[in-house]
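Minutes, structural biology subgroup

Action item carried over from last meeting: produce the structure token record for Major facilitator superfamily (MFS) profile domain-containing protein (Magallana gigas). EB confirmed the sequence was re-checked against the source entry. Recorded below for completeness.
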Amino acid sequence: MTENDNQSVHAKRTAQPTRSWRNYLSGPILFLHMFAFVMSLTTSGLYVPFYISATLFPHRKVSVSTGSICAVNESVASPETETIQKKATEFNIYVSLVSGIPAVIASVFLGAFSDRFGRAVEGSTGGFLALLMAAFSYIADITENNKQRSVAIAFLEIAVGLGLVLGRFSTGYFIKATNFVWPQVAACCIYTVVIMIIVFVLPETRKPKTPTETLSKKMSCVRHVEKIFSFYVSKSAERWKYNICILIFFATGITAVGRSGVDILYQISQPFCWNSVKVGWLGAVIGLFQNVICMGMIKVFHLCLNDEGVSILGSISGISGFMITAFASTDVMLYIAAVVGGGAVLTLPMIRAIMSRMTSPDKQGALFGGIAAIETACYIVGSLIFNPIYSHTVSIFRGYVYVVMAGMVFISLILLLVLVLAPRRLSSTYKINDHTVIKD
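Output recorded by EB:
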């Protein structure tokens, strides 16, 4: 090796930022935030139908400590129960619009700004998906562009899963012991702790080089928003891959983040009539299998599969889980669906990793900003699709909405096959045109 080569290697090594234990706080931050988010979401999801029941049917005997909307000694679905579910789905739609539209706008701007101003900006000013986006961008800054990044993203998903598991598990007992108020108070306190850690403890990975750069007039909002959409409209040869990936992400995402309100209504009404503790237990099992066990096995899956293969496996698992849920009539079937469908969550982090692998370091924030905006849009669109479907089919076939969800995941499976097979077909075409085909 020449002296110039030695100097080049030394320069690359010294250019890498030094990392301390504080650089790995993105996982604990996501855990705490997810714990608070799930606690607040579950409490709201159980309180809304209870409030509607108490308001519309004040003489109906429903236990406040259980969270179920089934009346005492009610064995079959009554017109009152169906009315409560329909009103609750309407409220879910309003909430998704009010909270989702501002979150989409925030995700679009904050993701691109974080590439220049730093990840803490979006991490402490956005909602859950904005924080998730910031964490993924943060990991992209401190990992190499290979399977190491896929594993790191998977570990973030595990942190999310642990927060989800413990949040859902504890919320059911919390509500049973204290009613609906104190879980929300606890969630607010945890949010405050998260903000303090982001602002005062977590080190920044992308700092402006000079104060002049920070105030540069080139930092226009239009330019940053253009960076987000440039992946999907540019003349790059990779554009079709970006478009396929974001369609896969959208088709899968609307079932992952748009189902929460429907799930709770499905469980607390006939034939299950679950209380808050049972809802929490199933949520914990789903989170355990999806975000902890399956995510923890990504390293094992990578021994024989690439990111695309793991995504296909996740889609097949998701379709199976939704179909079992659609026809479930007992508690055991819901738990079987949770286990069988546990791999559904694999598709989203793998698509993130695939897209991140195709993207340069200075555009990671813009990429994940766009993904977070799509994920927020998934929450809105999923709520707009699944809540009305459930409302209009609850008296005919309660599980129909889950058949629709399975169909959406099937669409993403088809697109994944296109993503895998199209490059091979194009490669074969180029070989034929260049007369390089090898015959037996």
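Discussion: The chain is about 75% helix and 0% strand.
Next step: EB to file the record with the rest of the batch.
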